[in-house]
TrEMBL record:
The keyword DNA-binding is assigned to this record: yes
Tyr recombinase domain segment(s): 168-366
Classification of source organism: Bacteria, Pseudomonadati, Pseudomonadota, Alphaproteobacteria, Sphingomonadales
Name of the protein in question: Tyrosine-type recombinase/integrase
UniProt source species: Qipengyuania algicida
Homology family: Belongs to the 'phage' integrase family.
MF GO annotations: DNA binding
Transmembrane segments: none
Keyword annotations: DNA integration, DNA recombination, DNA-binding
Residue stretches making up the Core-binding (CB) domain: 63-145
Gene Ontology biological-process annotations: DNA integration; DNA recombination
Signal peptide start-end: none
Classification via Pfam families: Phage_int_SAM_3, Phage_integrase
Amino acid sequence: MSIRKRTWVSGGKQKTAWVLVYSNINGKRTQVTFSTKREAERRWLEISAELDRGSHVSMAESITVAQAGELWIERAVSEGLERSTYEEYRRVLRLHIIPRIGEVKLSQLNRAFVENFRDQLLKELGPRTAERVFSYFKIIMKLADDKDKVSVNVAEKVKIKTSKRHRSRPEFFQMEEVNSALSASLKLGPRYRAFAHLFWLHGLRSSEGRGLPWESVNLEKGTVIISQRADRWRTIGPPKSETSFRTIPMTPSCVKALTAWKSEVKPAPDDLVFPDREGRPMSYFQQISQLYDPIMFESGLTKTVKGKLRHLRSLHATRHTTASIWIEMGFSAKRVQTLIGHSSIQITFDLYGHLFDLKESAADMMRSVDDWVLKNGPHSDDCYSD
């Protein structure tokens, strides 16, 4: 190893730099230029430690953040993740990471750089988007570290915090709005009625409704089995997660609505409940324009956006509304999680915890404890008086 001074003249002015020369893990001569001798010495201390650990990656051998991102996408595809998942990764990489730091080599990164990148995201993007983008960047860095593409994962200990007040609560329909939608679907016909009852009262995801076959609807038992979904490319596949496989008991009104719709279409068992005109899965756009919007417009649940009439709430709000109804009916958090198909009960509490809190106040709960104890033992009010 050597650190030597280099001088030259440029534009009539003398310039100075310090060149660190060393041999990498493979014995190849490598040199890096610095503005000051102190920077070169500090970097050599880091490099020598990396060489001792066998983890050193030189500047010449280092890949860029964009290249590391492509490794991440390749892994997602090879692991069999859903197309919608890795296309979302690709979109975030293209829109938010590559334009900002894509050309930077991993060996150039340090903690200060990563913290500046985090702060830039928080400044330029919404809090939730910034949090998601930075979490993806940290996954990219972790993968690069696992593949020995970087000497040290400098992003590992850098955290991003956003205020909880930025985390919006789920969107719900009010009960009068639910009734308006169900009434409108009755006017529109059996197809719309079946759709409305399944979505507003049973918590299906959009993709689960598009991929639902008649063989999963048991009108005699009054159950619907969620065992497949149709993604945005109209490809049939398994549900979102293992816990998304579930059996949902249907309300009597839903059984009646689906019976009427089935008697009209007379489907084969493997036919879809809500197909397009060719019998294929609907696209998301078709589902909204052909089924959801007619119900919303007929019920008057609309708003004007940039001079155009739009539905008042998103289709996904029907799923949140179902959960809120179940909670109001006294369903436990575990039962809600099971029927709605969340991957963990923590997700259920994160989304609907405030509804469980509203359902029964602490004071009401303690009064119930008091009532139960007094009712089930030889006690009297005197036992609790001062």
